[in-house]
Amino acid sequence: MSDVPKQRETGQEFDLEGFLPYLLNQAAEATSRSFQASYKAEYGMTRTQWRVLANLGKFGAMTARDICRISHIEKTKVSRAVAALEAEGLLQRATSPEDRRAEILSLTDGGRRVFRDLGQRALAYDAELRKRLGDGVATQIDAVLRSIAAQGDPDVTPGDD
Amino acid sequence: MSDVPKQRETGQEFDLEGFLPYLLNQAAEATSRSFQASYKAEYGMTRTQWRVLANLGKFGAMTARDICRISHIEKTKVSRAVAALEAEGLLQRATSPEDRRAEILSLTDGGRRVFRDLGQRALAYDAELRKRLGDGVATQIDAVLRSIAAQGDPDVTPGDD
DNA sequence: TTGACTTGGTTGCAGATGCAACTAATACTG
DNA sequence: CAGTATTAGTTGCATCTGCAACCAAGTCAA
């Protein structure tokens, strides 16, 4: 950690604008932010809430823990998002019969309705974005991003979303 | 805003895992987080602080406003990061002679030292990541991400980092 | 010069987050 | 079955962030 293998200062200089974490963040923020308007303005939802809802909408009922695993969102965040969504009547909890610690989460009818609405918007937004990027890129980008997300750093704790 | 053009529910279903904002966030968080250890553990710096420092290190003295323009980080965030970095003795301010509202920011020797150190680590981290991605991808990804960051959404406010 | 408007930066405040500590239910192990 | 270690979720607390309101210096125009 502290034994940087004697890099000559004259080696190469750091270029912020070519630094992947930086570029990824810029791109991620730009897109998330612009789509954010959809769930924030109309439903007063948080990014995390939208994601939790999206996961439940997409994969069906499951526990908070499953959501953490699938989405890599930290459990605290999920916990609070679930509480908020429940308060809004968008999702329900049911103690798992097999493990009374776990709660099976599922969307209510209202939740599903919101999911359908936002899902359609997301689809439209995504399509538009990909169209601008061009087919060639659009088809490759997913795999690349998934790969980066997975590798990020091999030897580091799970982290969150 | 509320006139979703009659999308048949039966059209196509929303696939969270193919949603660019989602994928980008996963990738961005994964990389940023893992690199975060470098500046957080050793220098107790924040992501924003690291970015401000990186910008100053890379582009030299400039005003907070310039940093906002270049990095798209929101001005409040920059303001606080600058205050923190100054408190740590990593940067200095000097009232601009031409415009006394503006402050020319520049790294101190200590700041430059930290920049060199973190810059080298960033370089190493980035190189490793790109190596794993493979040359083909690595050379294209930058342009794509920049394009996404720029387009994100054409008609939306500047936003932040 | 005066008064209205813009611009560089800071601050107040209400959220949103991360991390560690904590509760409750389970799973092991002898 | 007791006793300890795990695991699902929640909560306290100390930041970090976003947005709007707010100064102070500048600009512009009458």
- Biggest sheet strand line-up of chain A: 1-3-2
Strand composition percent of chain A: 5-15%
Q: Would you identify the regions of chain A where 5 or more consecutive residues have pLDDT less than 50?
A: 1-9, 153-161
Most extensive interface, chain pair and sizes: A-B, 70 and 71 residues
In the CATH hierarchy, the architecture of chain A is: Orthogonal Bundle
Which bin fits the share of residues in helices of chain A? 55-70%
Number of domains of chain A: 1
Shape of chain A: globular
Which fold does the CATH topology of chain A refer to? Arc Repressor Mutant, subunit A
In the CATH hierarchy, what is the class of chain A? Mainly Alpha
CATH homologous superfamily label of chain A? Winged helix-like DNA-binding domain superfamily/Winged helix DNA-binding domain
Per DSSP E runs of 2 or more residues, the count of β-strands of chain A stands at 3
Give the C-alpha Rg of chain A: 19 Å
SSE string of chain A: HHEHHEEHH
Helix-strand category of chain A? mainly alpha
Q: How would a crystallographer describe the biggest sheet of chain A? A: 3 strands, antiparallel
- Quaternary structure of the protein: homodimer
- Give average pLDDT of chain A, whole number: 87
Measure the end-to-end span of chain A. 25 Å
Count of DSSP-assigned helices of chain A: 6
Domain HTH marR-type (chains A, B): 17-150
GO molecular function, one term (chains A, B): DNA-binding transcription factor activity
Protein name (chains A, B): Winged helix-turn-helix transcriptional regulator
Pfam family, one (chains A, B): MarR_2
